[in-house]
Specification:
Blueprint lengths: L4 H34 L2 H25 L11 H20 L5 H16 L7 H14 L6
Helix pairs in contact: 1-2, 2-3, 2-4, 4-5
Length: 144
């Protein structure tokens, strides 16, 4: 078996991407724990959006794997790096502008879990409003 620079480059890129994914997951976990400890709904919303962006970015990566090589621009390490950065920024932008609804579902469920696990103080108006909005948003009107 001949080892060339492409094999080394691919192995390095795989290693770097795995480390980056692990750090993103840990970052999401840390933000979620911090939001729960601080009882900060803004941080909880940010963590939910971050996870949605990670999910969308993963979708983009998997979709790019299905595209056949060829076309106007030849496949290269520079193009791969650019596409990865483009996907990451697009997924962040999509998540911040409404996304696919995953961030809202995570946020609403975490607010419910937070309200069930701790008795929210009645003077915490922001938390009470979020809980009421969550319960209103989760009801479905099936009559049309």
């Amino acid at each position: 078996m001949k080892i060339d620079s492409n094999m080394i480059s691919n192995a390095y890129q795989t290693s770097v991407s795995q480390e980056k994914e692990a750090s993103e997951v840990n970052s999401f976990k840390d933000k979620l724990e911090q939001a729960a400890n601080d009882k900060d709904l803004t941080k909880l919303k940010e963590a939910s959006q971050e996870f949605e962006a990670y999910f969308i970015n993963t979708l983009f990566k998997e979709m790019r794997k299905t595209v056949q090589d060829g076309g106007l621009v030849e496949k290269s390490d520079a193009r791969t790096t650019f596409e990865g950065m483009l996907d990451e920024e697009m997924s962040k932008s999509i998540s911040k502008t409404g996304g696919i609804g995953l961030a809202d579902m995570i946020y609403n469920n975490m607010v419910k879990v937070y309200s069930a696990s701790t008795d929210a103080p009645e003077d915490d108006v922001e938390t009470q409003d979020a809980i009421e909005n969550t319960s209103n948003a989760s009801s479905l009107d099936l009559k049309g």
